[in-house]
């Protein structure tokens, strides 16, 4: 086996992971629409042929990026699925942003993606919508477990607070902005518990 062939195969290993890592960095710093596929290939580094072998379209790459964020716990929703903490603490964890290695503060990646793909029929927008609907279903299940009154309405209020706080944290570049929404969420939860009114 020639040295060139061995080197080429080595460089080809992990191409998908390198593409996703490069996309995550670039999307976070300059936005999805401002990031070109050629730029991602260059940063990965992979050939354009390799990039398109893994991701036929940019939408495919964006969805894979969002799925990767969700599976690695880099979204608000991931806190809701933790079984190592009580239901109330899982809900309040929505107001603590996921640990990210570096600035800038990006807010909710699903909201960001939906804003950059505004057509509700687009694959990216549809995926983002499904994730936000999953978020409210998870919160509804948790507030139901707590015995809160009107769990569906309360869940909508809590996710609206969480999404609003994430958006303001991004605009203001304040990763701790969720503390304001957390205080409001604590009041909502307290008032919704049985025997509080």
List the helices and strands and how they pair.
Elements: H1 3-12, H2 15-30, H3 37-43, H4 48-54, H5 58-71, H6 87-92, H7 109-116, H8 123-146, H9 151-172, H10 178-192
Helix pairs in contact: 2-5, 5-8, 7-8, 8-9, 9-10
Secondary-structure element order, N to C: HHHHHHHHHH
Number of strands: 0
Quote the distance from N terminus to C terminus: 78 Å
Helix share, percent: 55-70%
* Content-based structural category: mainly alpha
* Low-pLDDT residue intervals, each spanning 5 or more residues: 1-11
Q: Strand share of the residues?
A: under 5%
Characterize the main sheet: none
What is the approximate shape? elongated
Mean pLDDT: 88
SS element count, helices: 10
- Please tell me how large the radius of gyration is: 20 Å
Please explain how this structure is put together.
The chain is an all-alpha fold. Helix content is 65%, strand content 0%. The longest helix has 24 residues.
Characteristic key phrases:
197 residues; mainly alpha; 10 helices; disordered N terminus
Describe, in short, the structure shown.
It is built from ten helices and no strands. 65% of the residues lie in helices and 0% in strands.
């Amino acid at each position: 086996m020639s040295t060139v062939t061995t080197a080429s195969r080595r460089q080809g290993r992990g191409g998908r992971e390198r593409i996703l890592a490069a996309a995550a960095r670039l999307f976070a710093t300059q936005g999805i629409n401002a990031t070109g596929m050629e730029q991602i290939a260059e940063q990965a580094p992979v050939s354009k042929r390799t990039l398109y072998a893994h991701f036929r379209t940019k939408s495919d790459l964006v969805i894979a990026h969002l799925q990767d964020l969700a599976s690695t716990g880099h979204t608000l929703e991931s806190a809701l699925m933790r079984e190592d903490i009580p239901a109330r603490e899982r809900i309040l964890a929505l107001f603590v942003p996921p640990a990210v290695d570096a600035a800038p503060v990006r807010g909710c990646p699903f909201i960001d993606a939906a804003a950059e793909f505004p057509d509700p029929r687009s694959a990216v927008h549809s995926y983002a919508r499904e994730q936000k609907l999953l978020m409210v279903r998870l919160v509804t299940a948790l507030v139901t477990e707590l015995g809160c009154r009107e769990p569906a309405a309360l869940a909508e209020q809590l996710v609206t607070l969480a999404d609003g706080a994430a958006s303001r944290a991004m605009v203001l570049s304040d990763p701790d902005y969720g503390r304001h929404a957390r205080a409001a969420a604590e009041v909502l939860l307290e008032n919704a518990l049985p025997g509080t009114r």
